[in-house]
Amino acid sequence: MKNTSIGQLILCILIPFLGLIAFGGIVVAMLVAYLAPAASTDMEKALLMLSKNTVFFLNMIPFFIGFGLLLFAARFFAKTRLKSFISSRDKIDWRRFGFSFLVWSVLSFGFFAIDYFSNPAVYQLKFDGAIFSVLLVLSLIAIPIQTGFEEIIFRGFLLKLSQRFFANFLLICSINGLFFGAMHLANPEIALFGWPAFLYFVVTGMFLAAITLIDKGVELAWGFHAANNLFGVLIVTNNWQVLQTNALFIDTRPPEIGMNLLWTMLVAYPLLFVLLAKYYRWDLAGIFSRKRQ
Q1: Residue 45: left (phi > 0), alpha (psi -120 to 50), or beta?
Q2: Using one digit for the tens of pLDDT, what is the confidence trace for 191-227?
Q3: Which one in 51, 86, 231, 286 has a CA-CA gap of 20 to 30 Å to 59?
Q4: Structural contact between residues 260 and 115, judged by C-beta atoms closer than 8 angstroms
């Protein structure tokens, strides 16, 4: 990839992000007005009138627009292919995406199984074959796009922009994590739990930035992110998180930060890091001793 300027990188972040908010918001508002005309002036009321699958689809529409703008920004502002911001390899390594997706899915199912058999009363099975089939198709198409948009913005463009100003590995990861956490400030989890929930998003952003820097590509972070969001959309949901879906199980516990997030940050993330480091034979000794490229 040619040496993209700081200005080009900033445009590649702002154009897709602002376009997602502006154009995505307009498209969603128009669709809501069409689908629920009786309450089109009250978005919250209108969404309550629609099915969960419809609301999920509406939530995903801006990310399709944003992803299209990523392609546009890379081509016309950075004057290169979007692939250049995804991987340092000759082509995107989808096997890396798949491996990370598989490992995190297995870990997620494992932790869920432990919690389910320890607290079976808090889970309600809600399965409707027809409704779930629609959700499955929608999520398999939309979640890779949604997570891909976020990963390319944060672990692609923003990470490269940070490297133009800083060389310290931990500082770059921390900046990335803070921006990732800031993006989620509007999530209901933040309103419910405050700084502990914000810390979770920051740590997640730092973790994904770290594996992206070490592995020199976004594929592992993208695979993890897709697996994580698909699990929350398809397998276990609750009544207070940002996306309400017709998942297989509903966790009926009242809103609480719980041990799950601590377990994720203190056990699951380090475990995944070690597995990836061993499998891809990362040079961990050189992380803090050499300048990141």
Answers
A1: alpha
A2: 888 888 899 999 999 999 999 999 999 999 999 999 9
A3: 86
A4: yes
